[in-house]
Every structure is written in C-alpha cells, then in structure tokens.
Amino acid sequence: MEQYREIKSRHRDAILFFRMGDFYEMFFDDAELGARVLGITLTSRGDGVPLAGVPVKAAADYLRQLVAAGHRVAICEQVEDPRQARGIVRRAVIETLTPGAILEEGWVSGGRNNFLVAVTDPKLGTAAGLAAVDLSTGEFLLETTAPDGLAEALGRLAPAEIVVPGDLEPPLPAEVLRTRREPWEFDPELAREELSRRFRLASLDGLGVVAGDLPAVGAAGALLRYLTDLQPAGLPQLQRPVVRRSDRLLWVDDMTRRNLELVEPLRAGARGVTLLEALVRTVTPMGARLLRQWVLSPLRD
C-alpha cells in the first residue's frame, strides 16, 4: 500500500481510481464513499482496509456517476507493462475529472453548457473578472463586470464548478463545487503571457482585450493553470477566448430569471412552460446551447 499512499497524498481532495489489472480499486474512505454513491459492494482486504472496485471496461459509467454527484476523481493508471516490471508496477495519475472538467459531451445535457468558471476577488478592485471554459465544446469566454454584477453573471453562466482565490465565497448555491487556488495564480500579467503563448498571439489585442479586461485575463490564467493540473498530459483543443461585454447585456437577476421562467420552470418537472422551450427549434446541441445563452444574456441593443 506504500505506492497507493504516496499517490493519494498528492490527491487528497479526489477519489483515487487506482488501476490494478482489470479493475480500478478504491481504498479507505474513498472505498466507503464510492460504494455508497455507486451502489457497489464494499469489502476489505486481509488487513482490514476497506476496498471497492469497478471493472476498467465499465469505468466510464461509474466515473460519470461520481462526477455527477459532485466529486473529483483522479485516475491512476499503470504506466508500464506489468510483465516487464521489476518489482511494483509504476503508476501515475493521468487525469482528474471534476464536475467542471468533463471532456465527454455525452455526459452533460445537450442543450446547455457545462462551464468551469474562475472568478477574481471583487474586493480587490473596481471590477470582478470571470473566465469560463466548457471542455466538452472548447468554448472559452472572458467577462469583466462590476462587483455588484457578479451574482448576475454567475447566474447566467450557471457553472458546474468554480475556481476562486483563497477563501473567497462566491454567490452560488452550496452544491456548486468550489476549488480554491492561490491568489497569485490570478495575476493578470502572468495570465497575459500564458494566453499569448497558448494561443500564439503577439499580444492580447487580437482578442479585443482592453485595459478594463485585466481582471478577466487574470481569471483566465488561473483557469488554465488549474486545467493543466487536471490534465497533465495536455489540454484538449480550446477555442480562442471571446470577450463578452457585460455593459452590452441586459442584467437579469436570479429571482427575475426564475419568476419569468426563462429556462427553468417554477414547478419542478413542469414541461413546455419556459421561454426557452417555446423558442427552441434547433437541430443540434450546439444550436441549443447558443439559444440558451441568448435567452439568458439578451443584448441591450
């Protein structure tokens, strides 16, 4: 168990799927949590260590269930052929799945985005910066808003997970997963270099970034650092960031959004009552997502 303990020590906030032959095994607290969420059998090793496992061939469905329940899952693979290993087979975490870092488009509703959002601390300046990525589609959005507009902006994006500096508490429901990062990771100058390098830009002028967008640039840098930690083998293809101007959008607060039944019915389970349902005639998931964004973010002009 020494190898397991060493790897788990670097992924304490995630359920560790530890590859052993044809199974992913979970141990200790991970096993108890995994068995409870997945409805699988909890057993124990000879030394009394709690154990639960799932077949590698069926792992995708179990991973989807854990992520849908709001958990992080670190996937630890065997990185050498067991037949050629001298001693213990080398293993390494190849990726970490989270509610906001889903690569499979089929894991989320086809009519809505699955945004991972980073936000800067609005108390540090006159504006709050947001960056949002949907890994299943590659969409990448930047937005800067007044501090009192942060709740409205987050309500429009409806993130599956949010990345925040330090102990910042965002105005979001408790069930939305919070990921806390070091405040220096939100530095806009470091982010400018990272964005320019990743998207092969001489400067961010090509994205339409102006001085007032620096908070959003800082949020984008923190988001990319976090994603790099989750996907050490390399990020999926991301579209060039699109700068959204909050002053061009009509602010619709959460209460108004609910009372007008723009995208969600007031009565759970009701069908055919929202504005989105009345308008939708799209034939692709991409079109459905775009229409949803338009309904939640109508232009003032």
Q: Work out the count of structural domains.
A: 2
Tell me the name of the CATH class of the largest domain. Alpha Beta
Structural class: alpha/beta
Largest sheet: 6 strands, mixed
Label the overall shape. Answer: globular
- What's the SSE pattern? HEEHEEHEEEEEHEEHHEHHH
Helix coverage percent of residues? Answer: 25-40%
Oligomeric nature of the chains: single chain
In CATH terms, what is the fold-level topology of the largest domain?
Nucleotidyltransferase, domain 5
Quickly count the helices. Answer: 9
The number of strands is 12
CATH architecture of the largest domain: 2-Layer Sandwich
Which parts are unreliable, with pLDDT below 50 for 5 consecutive residues or more? none
Strand order of the largest sheet: 3-4-2-1-5-6
The chain-level mean pLDDT equals: 86
Report Rg.
21 Å
CATH superfamily of the largest domain, by name, is MutS, connector domain
For the record, give the distance between the C-alpha atoms at the N and C termini, rounded to a whole number. 62 Å
Beta-strand content = 15-25%
